[in-house]
C-alpha cells in the first residue's frame, strides 16, 4: 500500500515537472542582424548591440496603423525615436522588413513593396544592424563600409549621437519634422533645424516654412531659450554641443545613461523631453501669436481684428446661439494649421480638430461659449482676451477720455489767449494814437512848428513811424550804435533822401512817462544853438519812445 502511494506521488511530480517545462519554452534567440533574404515580422524585434535599443513593428491603437520604428528597451513611456515609414503606414500586421537581392532594405506586405527604406545599393553582401547608439545601418559586409544610416533621415526626435544641422559639401540637412497629430506620424506643420542667422547659430522652428520660434544665438555652451536643458533644477542635465567642422555644422547632445534621453518636436511645435523627462523646453504657451517675443516666438504683424493678449484657451463646452460651424476635412491639416486659420480670420471665435487630430472645425460669429464643468464635452480652443489685453483696452479708453477733455481745453485756452492778446495790442495801439494826439495837440508843440518874425524856421517836428525808424537804423543794428547814455542807446541812421540822423531809443526802464517825454521834446525843439543838433521829431511804438535828431 505504501509502495502504491509512493508510485502515485512520483507520477504526480513527473507530470508537474513535464508541464512546467512545456510552459517555459526557451525564448526565440534575439535577432541582431539581417542579411538578404532575411525577414522580420510584427512579432520579432531587432536588438541593438548591448540591448539598449530595439527595432520592430508597432501599432497606434487610435488608428490601427502599423509602423516600423526604433525605441529604447525598457522605456516606460514607449517613446518611438525613429520611424521608417511615417508617411506610408501599414493597414494591418502583415508587414515584413527584408533585404532584397539588390541590397535594398524595404518593407513589404502581401508580397508587395510598401516602402523602400534605402535606395537600391546593387550589392549582395549588405547587412542590416542596429548599433549600440541606436542607429540602423546598412553596411557592405565585404568592404566594411556604411551604405546607409537612419541618422541621416531623422523624424521628430533627436537623441544622443544624432545630428541636427547640415553638410556644406553634400548639402545634406538633418532636420526634425513634427508628427501631423499625436496619433499620426506623417509629416506635420513644424520643422526644427540649425540655422545661421546674422552670423550666429540658432535653433529655428518653422511652421509651413515660415519662421515661428528661435532659440537665440549659441553662446556659453547653450542657447538662451534652452538653458533649462542643463540647469541645476533638471535632473537629467543634458550636455549640449555645437560642432562646426570643415564640412559639417551640427548640434547634438548627450545625457546620463538610464534616463532614456530624447528631445521631441511635438505635433504642436513644442520641444519636449522624452522618456522619463516630459518637460516642455520651448513654446510653453502652446501657440505663438506674433506679439510675444520674450519666449522665442517671432514677432509678426497682427491681424487688424486681433490685439496683444488675445489667445486661444482649451475649454470643455459648446458655442451657443449666434455661431456657425465650418468643417475643413483635410487629412494633411494639423492643429497648428487650424490655429493659424482661425487667428487670421476675424469672424473666427474658436476651433478644434477632428477625432484623429487632423482637419479643422471652425466656429464663426459672436456666439457665447458655455463651459461644461463636468469636462465630458469635446474640448475646443476658444478665443479669449487676457487680463493684459483688457488692461490695455482700459488704458486706451482713459487715453481717449483724457485727450477728449484736454484738447478742447487747450483749444479754448488758445482762443482766449488770442482774444486777450489781440485786445491788448488794440489797447496799446489806441494808447499810442492817444499819445500822439496829446503830443500833437499841445500848444507848445504847435508853437515849435511856427516861423519866427524874422523869417527863420525854428522847427518842423514830425511823428515818424516805427517802421521808418527801423529802416533808417537797419533794424537798430549794433554796427549803427553810437553809444549809450543813462536813458538808453543812440543809433546812427539815414533817411531815404540821404540825410544822416541820430535815433535816441529811450530805455523802457527809464521811468519816463508821456508827459515827461513831451516836455523834453518841446524843450529841445525850442532851444536853438549852433552847438546843438536839431530835433526832427519822435516815434512812439507801444510803450517805447524815440527821439530823432
Automatic annotation (TrEMBL):
Residues 31-151 form the Bulb-type lectin domain. Residues 1-22 form the signal peptide. It comes from the Eukaryota. Pfam families: B_lectin, PAN_2, PK_Tyr_Ser-Thr. This is Uncharacterized protein. One of its GO terms (cellular component) is plasma membrane. Its main location: membrane. The chain crosses the membrane at residues 396-420. Residues 476-549 form the Protein kinase domain. It is found in: Cell membrane. One of its GO terms (molecular function) is carbohydrate binding. Residues 305-382 form the Apple domain. Keywords: ATP-binding, Cell membrane, Disulfide bond, Glycoprotein, Kinase, Lectin, Membrane, Nucleotide-binding, Receptor, Serine/threonine-protein kinase, Signal, Transferase, Transmembrane, Transmembrane helix. It comes from Solanum stoloniferum. It is a single-pass type I membrane protein.
